[in-house]
Amino acid sequence: MSFIGAVGQQWQKAQLSQRLQLALMPRPSLNYLFTGATDRETLSHLVAALVFSEGKPDWLVLDAEHERQPLSAWDTMDCLLLSCTLLSTRACSPEGLSQAEQLVMTLAEVWASELERHVDHGDAKRDGCEALLRLIAALKVQQQVRRQRSRNMTG
User: Is the pLDDT of residue 111 over 90?
Assistant: First the structure.
């Protein structure tokens, strides 16, 4: 990638982060998630970095016209789904997830649960919500098993 291309991609990543922050702001139901060390800005930067980890996704439209507008609920869902898919590999590693990465998973679970209630059965958008919720549920089971094994070894 050329220098100009890299700068352009950084600009788009920053725009995505800003639009994610704007999408999260008006939702008081999410405020409890940001009472710890990880704030909305940090979480938005992490999600943007994960989304752009393999370049800009084709489905993501970032342009100057929408720069100051919140990301739509469904684009936010797609970003969280992609982020959680990438984080699931890391969650299976011995180190597990950092606090910020765990917060991405928690936010994704809450976001998908809220959106799922507003979509009809059989809709592709609902399928994405259900897939994300299944992924998170499977990772929670794996974490519980890991904790139980750890307790058994130390106790």
Answer: yes
